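Dear all,

This email documents one entry for the complex benchmark we are building for the journal club exercise. For each entry we list the sequence lines for every component of the assembly. Then comes the predicted three-dimensional structure of the complex as a token string, followed by one or two observations. Please use this as the template for your own entries, and keep the labels exactly as they appear.
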Amino acid sequence: MARWEPGTFERLRAAALTLYDEQGFEKTTVAQITERAGMNRRTFFHHFADKREVVFAGQDQSEEFIAAEIRNQPEGTDPLHAAVAGLAAAADQIYEQFRDGAVLLGRVIAASPELQERELVKRSTLAARIAAALRERGTAETAATVAGWTAVAIFFVARNQWNQPGNEHTLADLITTTLQEFLSATRSTPSRTP
Amino acid sequence: MARWEPGTFERLRAAALTLYDEQGFEKTTVAQITERAGMNRRTFFHHFADKREVVFAGQDQSEEFIAAEIRNQPEGTDPLHAAVAGLAAAADQIYEQFRDGAVLLGRVIAASPELQERELVKRSTLAARIAAALRERGTAETAATVAGWTAVAIFFVARNQWNQPGNEHTLADLITTTLQEFLSATRSTPSRTP
């Protein structure tokens, strides 16, 4: 990557997200993005597979980090707490630094049915990745799959509070609070399990 | 609907799913489906918006049923048990009768990336519908959203066991077992909540 100017990725991404916000994701072309960023097509396609992937850039690395954190949770931690701990660690060490851009990103996704559908695919991938990390810790397949989806739901509920204008909580705090609210609600029925 | 021959819907759906299974969803046209079923295009589009909706037919009615069952759960039932009870009731009263077709349907979806992506959208709609029913019972928004996604994950894990060739369990039993496995796994850590 040495022959690419430093900050190229960030400049292209900022130009793209600003345009998506101004005129809509569907109406924005790669030509407009590269013109706004003052770069050429080749540079764009060096960094992004297509204009949709600009929105979800970095997810693979985040998933790698989350899976490693889950595998490293203390033995005996239950799968849901292990999964949420992995997501909270990623929130602190990866997502929190992008807080300023998160409001814009949330608005762009909320305005585009295509991006919302794509986000569902990304959620599904993340849930599967979490489930795989849980299985590596010894969680049975069924519980790992359900815990993966539950953790992802907790993450997205928290993110959709975190990326609101005026929010003052960290994403990790919101994730922890959401987990507690879910557990309190679901544990309120005394022993209904057969 | 009186002017449509009885069984039209079922014949069109059977023809479509058989063709999707034989030659792939992507390669099948509405013309092929109507030819196989011995009907015309107009009849097809009376019953289905497009060839994709054939696969997911009936979901709106199922969601209506599930939401009503959730609202009717005894007061004090926690949101996750209420949601799962609604899904188990639908399994008994709606899904179980389609068991023979479920193996074929599962195979068709598993073979098509487009249908898998569409199924994620349907899952998301179902999770939102369940969350809305839970909120009507007094569950707070955050817990309702997470419980909705967890219940949907439980439902799909169970369905993906139910629709395997050779499975002898009912869908409702598999749903109950999956819930128990999730709860046992996540309750195994003694009081890690802060």
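Observations: Chain B has a mean pLDDT of 91. The interface with chain A takes residues 76-81, 117, 120-121, 123-124, 127, 139-140, 142-143, 145-150, 152-154, 157, 176, 178, 180-189, 192-194 of chain B (CB under 8 Å).
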